[in-house]
From TrEMBL:
<dbReference type="InterPro" id="IPR036412">
    <property type="entry name" value="HAD-like_sf"/>
</dbReference>
<dbReference type="InterPro" id="IPR023198">
    <property type="entry name" value="PGP-like_dom2"/>
</dbReference>
<dbReference type="Pfam" id="PF00702">
    <property type="entry name" value="Hydrolase"/>
</dbReference>
<protein>
    <submittedName>
        <fullName>Hydrolase</fullName>
    </submittedName>
</protein>
<dbReference type="InterPro" id="IPR023214">
    <property type="entry name" value="HAD_sf"/>
</dbReference>
<dbReference type="GO" id="GO:0016787">
    <property type="term" value="F:hydrolase activity"/>
</dbReference>
<dbReference type="InterPro" id="IPR006439">
    <property type="entry name" value="HAD-SF_hydro_IA"/>
</dbReference>
<keyword id="KW-0378">Hydrolase</keyword>
C-alpha cells in the first residue's frame, strides 16, 4: 500500500481514524541517531574495543543490549546489562534540554493534541531515553513502550500490540510511524498501517507499508486518508 501524501479523504469514516498514532523513537520522532552513534563509540573506546559506521548500520533499529553484546563479544570487560546502562546514560545526558524533534514531528504532535488523538513511543531503545522525549509532548505521548517492557522486541509485534493495549485502542485503528525495516515489520505484524519515513537505511516496499519522501509529509490529514 503506497499513497501520495497529497491524497486526503475528508469523509466521516476517515475523520474517526486514526484512534492513536504510535511513533518509533530514534530517527522517526527525534533526531537521536547521531547521539547513539557517539555514545556507542565513546563506550566502546572506554572498553578498548572497535566500533565503526558499519556497526551503527548493523545495529540500526535493534535493541541497545544487541550493541552491548557485540562489544562484549569483541572483548569488552563488562556485562551486557552494565554496558547497556552506560549507553542509555550517555544518550539521555546528550538529549537533556529541548527535545530534538525531527522536522514536521512537533507540528504533527500539535495536530494530534488539538484533535484529542493519543500517541505512544514504541522503541527498541531504553525507557530512560524515550521518557525524556515523551515529556516534551505529554498531552499526546501518553505511553512509552521500550525494549525493557516486552519479552520480544521489534521486529516481533509485541511492542506495538502492548502500546495499543495500554492506550485502550484496537491496533487496526492505529497508525505506526517508523524509519527502519525492523520497526516497520513489527508494526505491520501487529496489524496496523505503517508510514515509513526516510531513515539511515532504505526500507523495502511491502504490503501495509506507506513510504513517504519526508517526515514533513506526515500530517494528520494524511494519516486520516489511510483509514479509507
Amino acid at each position: 500500500m503506497d499513497r501520495s501524501p497529497q491524497a486526503v479523504d475528508r469523509s466521516p469514516q476517515a475523520a474517526g481514524f486514526p484512534a492513536a498514532v504510535l511513533f518509533d523513537h530514534d530517527g522517526t520522532l527525534v533526531d537521536s541517531e547521531p547521539q547513539w552513534a557517539v555514545a556507542k563509540r565513546a563506550v566502546a573506546a572506554r572498553y578498548g574495543v572497535a566500533w565503526e559506521t558499519e556497526d551503527d548500520l548493523l545495529t540500526l533499529g535493534k535493541t541497545v543490549p544487541t550493541s552491548a553484546a557485540l562489544m562484549v563479544e569483541r572483548g569488552a570487560a563488562g556485562t551486557v546489562e552494565g554496558i547497556t546502562a552506560e549507553l542509555g546514560r550517555e544518550v539521555a545526558d546528550a538529549l537533556t534540554g529541548e527535545v530534538p524533534f525531527l522536522p514536521g514531528m512537533r507540528e504533527l504532535l500539535d495536530e494530534l493534541a488539538a484533535a484529542g488523538i493519543p500517541g505512544a513511543v514504541v522503541t527498541n531503545a531504553l525507557t530512560v531515553v524515550a521518557e525524556g522525549t515523551a515529556s516534551g509532548a505529554p498531552e499526546v505521548l501518553r505511553v512509552v513502550v521500550s525494549q525493557e517492557d516486552v519479552e520480544h522486541p521489534k521486529p516481533h509485534p509485541e511492542p506495538y500490540l502492548l502500546a495499543a493495549r495500554r492506550l485502550g485502542v484496537d491496533p487496526a485503528r492505529c497508525v505506526a510511524i517508523e524509519d527502519s525495516q525492523t520497526g516497520a515489520a513489527s508494526a505491520a505484524a501487529a496489524g496496523m498501517p505503517v508510514v515509513v519515513v526516510p531513515g539511515e537505511l532504505a526500507v523495502a516496499p511491502a504490503p501495509g507499508l506507506v513510504l513517504v519522501d519526508s517526515h514533513t509529509d506526515v500530517t494528520l490529514a494524511f494519516l486520516r486518508s489511510l483509514g479509507t
